[in-house]
Amino acid sequence: MFKMEKNTPIKPVETQQKQLYHIKVNINGVDYEHDVEARLLLVHYIRDVVGLTGTHIGCDTSNCGACTVIFNGKSVKSCTMFAVQANGAKILTIEGLSKNGELHPIQRAFWENHALQCGYCTPGFIMQAYWLLKENPNPKEEEIRKGISGNLCRCTGYQNIVKAIMQAAKELRSK
Amino acid sequence: MIPRNFIYFSPSSEKEALELLNEYKSDARILAGGMSLIPLMKMRLVSPSYLIDINKVESLSYIKEEKNRLRIGALTRYYEIEKSSTLKKLLPIMNEAATWVGDPQVRNMGTIGGSLSHADPSGDFGSVILALNGQIITSSLNGQRTIKADDFFVDSFTTALNANEMLKEIVIDLPEGMNGGAYVKLERKAGDFAIVAVAAQLSIDSKGNCNYAGIGLTSVGPTNLKAKKAESFLLGKQLNERTIDETAEIAASEARPIDDPLRGSAEYKRAMVKVLTKRALNLALKRARGV
Ligand SMILES: Cc1cc2nc3c(=O)[nH]c(=O)nc-3n(C[C@H](O)[C@H](O)[C@H](O)COP(=O)(O)OP(=O)(O)OC[C@H]3O[C@@H](n4cnc5c(N)ncnc54)[C@H](O)[C@@H]3O)c2cc1C
Ligand code: FES
Ligand code: FES
């Protein structure tokens, strides 16, 4: 029988040295600098390294849009991008929308129209709506539905989300 | 899901990207929009040792009109194709096809060069470029090559690109005279890959005879297919209900669909090729006539 010697020192397994990359990213107006692995996904960077957990991971397969953030002015799925790609980028997440403790009109419209139930999908929908209304400040209902086709909600049935985006559009136009 | 680790490069010029590609060849992958590559890496179906991110090579992103030709840079995103006024004026089938790809977030990142290089038989742009008889310009340290779209797609997820080459641009001869195109897609749900989709591009002369016919089929073969028999059947003929019906029948016979549990039986898909080819040709004809 094999007998373990007492106090056999455990040797570290030879590993490939971890190569790290220094990135500078501006998120919601704040500059961050970190050393990250190339394979670190942007959503994990935002949530686990920077600590902004408002951006959610739903499917992790580029389908649900829960991880949507605004990346250099465009809405993207942050689970399908590497943090190293964000070097030098400006990112806006759900945490960056409210100003001086006041909800952003899109956030308020979601609240007032009961556009969320469990709320898991909400940050993604709101960020996508934010981009959509920047692109098209006066969307028709059908354009809203197409615009949010990359976001899934398993609770609301979408009706109230569409209503909320309509209301927010009206409000933002009058500003 | 976390991919295997890799060495990351972010070249700022095409030359630098080509040097890296030349050094690491098949151990390296180009990263464009990442909309196909990153999901594959996360599932560890693809694990390149080196990633050459071309997103900072802005010189690869353009839509340029030249004498009778259009040049589209590999890094041009679906979003830019969808919005392009140059394309709306010259080749609106491109704008139309772009609106059918995935969802807005995917279109904000995904590129035409990535789509063609990925060579997914259910990708939408392969069929469009086949219908337009486009040419693919590749580049490497050894220079450039011009490959006809029809020769570019070798097999599923396999192209004529060599390991040290990248797709640089797509060149399309602009249609002349009365012309129109359409991209018609059948999908299970918004933003999904096609069950079947058809790209059709037509030109007609003053007598109403067809002098250009391009038909590309999506999701019904090992690659995007060019329905060559259908195209040559239509050429020189009057476009009417009968000829369009027959063309669609021929296109359906050229399709090579397979049964799949998600998107239907081969028989169903073949029937849909006929329906969609008819729809696409009718729409293209309407647009060519300007009605
Ligand atoms: C949710 C979702 C839905 C989608 N729906 C559709 C759809 O309905 N229709 C559709 O057509 N597609 C769809 N796609 C795929 C999408 O079109 C991808 O954008 C496209 O297939 C790849 O383009 P990319 O720029 O993202 O390339 P990447 O993912 O970066 O690269 C794809 C492959 O091409 C190679 N490559 C990229 N650029 C070059 C180049 N210039 N030269 C040489 N090689 C290169 C890469 O190395 C990689 O192997 C969908 C994707 C997602 C995530
Ligand atoms: S978590 Fe990114 S799309 Fe679902
Ligand atoms: S509110 Fe629950 S998933 Fe949308």
Strand order of the largest sheet of chain A: 2-1-5-3-4
Proper CATH architecture of the largest domain in chain A: Roll
Which small-molecule species are bound to the chains here?
flavin-adenine dinucleotide, FE2/S2 (inorganic) cluster
How many E-type strands of chain B?
14
Briefly note the CATH topology name of the largest domain in chain B. Uridine Diphospho-n-acetylenolpyruvylglucosamine Reductase, domain 3
Mean pLDDT of chain A: 93
N-to-C span of chain A: 81 Å
Give the tally of structural domains of chain A: 2
Shape of chain B: globular
**Could you tell me the mean pLDDT of chain B?**
97
For the record, the count of structural domains of chain B works out to 3
Provide structural commentary.
The complex is a heterodimer of chains A (175) and B (291). Chain A has helices at 42-49, 105-112, 122-135, 141-147, 159-173, and strands spanning 20-27, 30-37, 68-71, 74-77, 90-92. With 175 residues, chain A is α+β, with helices and mostly antiparallel strands. Chain A folds into 2 domains: 20-96, Ubiquitin-like (UB roll) (Roll); 105-173, DNA polymerase, domain 1 (Orthogonal Bundle). A 5-stranded mixed sheet of chain A has the order 2-1-5-3-4, with helices on both faces. In chain A, helix 2 packs across helix 5. The longest helix of chain A is centred in the last third of the chain and has 15 residues, at 159-173. By secondary structure, chain B is α+β, with helices and mostly antiparallel strands. Chain B has 3 domains: 7-51, Uridine Diphospho-n-acetylenolpyruvylglucosamine Reductase, domain 2 (2-Layer Sandwich), CATH 3.30.43.10; 61-173, Uridine Diphospho-n-acetylenolpyruvylglucosamine Reductase, domain 3 (2-Layer Sandwich), CATH 3.30.465; 178-286, CO dehydrogenase flavoprotein, C-terminal domain (Enolase-like, domain 1), CATH 3.30.390. Chain B contains 12 helices and 14 strands. In chain B, the strands form 4 sheets. Chain B has a 5-stranded antiparallel sheet. In chain B, helix 2 links the parallel strand 2 and strand 3 (50-53). In chain B, helix 10 (228-234) packs antiparallel against helix 11 and helix 11 (241-254) packs antiparallel against helix 12. Chain B is globular, with a radius of gyration of 19 Å. Classes of the chains: A alpha+beta (175), B alpha+beta (291). The structure holds flavin-adenine dinucleotide and FE2/S2 (inorganic) cluster (2 copies).
